[in-house]
From TrEMBL:
Pathway: Porphyrin-containing compound metabolism; protoporphyrin-IX biosynthesis; protoporphyrinogen-IX from coproporphyrinogen-III (AdoMet route): step 1/1. Its EC number is 1.3.98.3. GO terms for biological process: protoporphyrinogen IX biosynthetic process. It comes from Brevundimonas aurantiaca. Involved in the heme biosynthesis. Catalyzes the anaerobic oxidative decarboxylation of propionate groups of rings A and B of coproporphyrinogen III to yield the vinyl groups in protoporphyrinogen IX. It holds the Pfam family HemN_C. Binds 1 [4Fe-4S] cluster. The cluster is coordinated with 3 cysteines and an exchangeable S-adenosyl-L-methionine. S-adenosyl-L-methionine 2 binds at residues 74-76, 124-125, 183, 195, 220, 254. This is Coproporphyrinogen-III oxidase.
Length: 465
């Protein structure tokens, strides 16, 4: 195996690098990835894993709210347009019933309530829930779980449907972190993706949330959208930067109409090419770093005082299905349609179709559709990939020792890394793999060198750049 970078690496032009490495690759929010989940792992396995889950540390909760005011054409989430209260109210009922089903299968509680360290509301648009339903949901969670050590309650929000009443209700439940979907502030781009919103609306939302106790604000932006150009992206970044959000996420639009049919409403001829996407992402990143944000991993930025920036500096940054996170809980319990859960024994995903999820919960069954069991090798390879995604460097031999694995188990990765070394995207010294500054936009492709399944599931993922 190659354990040192070749001398005189030939650094190629940006165009050549994109042409060579802009393949389809997982986002590596887990390992194994969700594309490797199968129906062979279902409710029975999830019930057994819950009974064996470690309870010495608080767990994390994720609740998926699959409702939106409208369907944004770029969206890759599991959601649907909904403006009637009754289906949302019954959904809350079933979220709490699913929590009961989960708790009934957890052993070792001995009459104690399960401790929860963090709660994340995702979607969809969680602020589609009426304020009284939001408070009813959290009252139900507080009755079932021990929330005394809950250090963070977070929610993903659509500024266009955010109201003062909802924000006040969020303040009462203890919302501490909020993510506002912005994407792009150009009217032309917004029309092309069916996502109208003004900067004034976003500014009002940010100020109102802070007034109700939100201490960490994240704004979600996108590049690679139809009709988007560098000036659109930079103008958007410049405007939202004036709000000084603690975090900014800059995601590349993933055009996967074979998986998300509504994306066919986007005119593919309007989509920027790989070089244009690359230029957009790099221009935005330069602007944010110049204005004081710290670059975090592949696509996040945080002000130096934020907990995510501190975790990155300390080598404690993690990655899960919400992206980069500071959450180190070994158990994540997902509630709701399409939610993903994790224990040290494996991953499971609930039925993605809301009707299937509802039917299973109403029948008293854990609503699991698929999953994957973790073996010791998966844990070893998964940590290699996570450290590369988070730190851009990993000592493979050190991880092998800590996991009790043989370094030879990843022998196939070294020849796959050679092209990255030759092109100046990665360096290998001894057993330490380091992604260079030039290689950071291509880190997913570097990670795929350690993933034996990456080629087999290539077409099920978005492109690297």
């Amino acid at each position: 195996m190659s354990l040192s970078s070749p001398a005189g690496a030939d650094v190629r032009t940006t165009r050549e690098l994109i042409a060579r490495y802009d393949a389809h690759a997982p986002r590596y929010t887990s390992y194994p990835t969700a594309a490797q989940f199968t129906p062979a792992v279902g409710a029975a396995e999830w019930g057994a894993w819950l009974s064996a889950a470690p309870l010495d540390r608080a767990v994390s909760l994720y609740l998926h709210i699959p409702f939106c005011k409208r369907l944004c054409w770029y969206c890759g989430c599991n959601t649907r347009a909904m403006n009637r209260v009754a289906p949302m109210s019954s959904y809350v009922d079933l979220l709490l019933k699913e929590a009961d089903l989960v708790l009934a299968r957890m052993g070792g509680l001995n009459g104690r309530r399960l401790r929860v360290g963090s709660i994340h509301l995702g979607g969809g648009t969680p602020n589609m829930l009426p304020p009284d339903e939001l408070e009813r949901l959290f009252a139900g969670l507080a009755a079932r779980f021990d929330l005394g050590d809950c250090f963070e309650i977070a929610a993903e929000l659509d500024p266009e449907v955010l109201t003062q009443d909802w924000i006040e209700a969020a303040g009462r439940i203890g919302l501490s972190r909020a993510s506002l979907g912005v994407q792009d502030l150009s009217a032309v781009v917004q029309e092309a993706v069916n996502r109208p919103e003004s900067f004034e609306t976003i500014r009002w939302a940010a100020e109102a949330l802070r007034a109700q106790g939100v201490t960490s604000l994240n704004l979600d932006l996108m590049y690679g959208l139809p009709l988007q150009a560098v000036e659109n992206v930079v103008n958007t970044v410049a405007q939202v930067a004036t709000l000084r959000p603690e975090r900014i996420a800059l995601f590349g639009y993933a055009h996967v109409p074979w998986m998300k049919p509504h994306q066919k409403l986007i005119n593919e001829a309007d989509l920027p090419g790989a070089e244009a996407r690359f230029a957009q992402s790099q221009a935005a990143a330069r602007y944010l770093v110049q204005k004081g944000w710290q670059a975090i991993g592949l696509d996040h930025f945080a002000l130096p005082h934020d907990s995510m920036a501190a975790a990155a500096r300390a080598g404690r940054l993690r990655r899960n299905f919400q992206g980069y996170t500071t959450d180190e809980a070994p158990v994540l319990i997902g509630l709701g349609a399409s939610s993903i859960s994790r224990t040290p024994l494996g991953f499971v995903q609930n039925h993605a179709q809301e009707r299937d999820w509802r039917a299973a919960v109403e029948a008293g069954d854990l609503p699991v559709a698929r999953g994957v069991a973790l073996n010791p090798r998966d844990a070893f390879v998964g940590e290699i990939i996570e450290r590369l995604m988070c730190d851009f460097a990993v000592d493979v031999a050190d991880l092998a020792r800590r996991h009790g694995r043989a370094l030879a188990e990843v022998d196939a990765a070294w020849p796959r890394l050679l092209p990255f070394q030759l092109d100046g995207l990665a360096e290998v010294g001894g057993s330490v793999v380091t992604v260079t500054d030039l290689g950071r936009p291509f880190v997913r492709a570097v990670c795929a060198a350690f993933d034996p399944a990456a080629i087999d599931i290539e077409k099920r993922h978005a492109r690297v750049v």
